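Protocol step 4 of 5: obtain the predicted structure for the target chain.
Materials: sequence only (see below). No template structures provided, no constraints applied. The aim of this step is simply to have a reference model before the mutagenesis design in step 5. Sequence pasted as it appears in the construct record:
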Amino acid sequence: MTRDELAKQQEALVAALVAGGPPPAGFDVPALEATVEALLNKRAGEVAHRAPDLKYELGADFAPRFREWASSRPKTTTAADTVSFRDHLISEGIITPPAKPRPSLRRLLRQKLRGH
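Step 4 output (structure tokens):
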């Protein structure tokens, strides 16, 4: 196998794992599907940890909605996933936008520790 062939196979594998691409030839499809599901569940957990209000508001629908949304979107960062997923939910009318922006918990804790 040449370097170019290997690079194309690796690219196809990454696309299948994180961007909803088709399974590359020669891969165990059930194992690949299980890995994709595990990666989506991990991302959902990270977003739920970063935005517990979303998880609370959506309840049992949070993980399935996130997995559906994320299944064709490669991850960049958890922060970007959180913002994009929230924007998607707002644009679809699933949740309402917050009345006013809330300061982040991290910023509030930093201010508290600094004595502000």
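Step 4 remarks: The radius of gyration is 18 Å. The CA atoms of residues 40 and 56 lie 19 Å apart.
Proceed to step 5.
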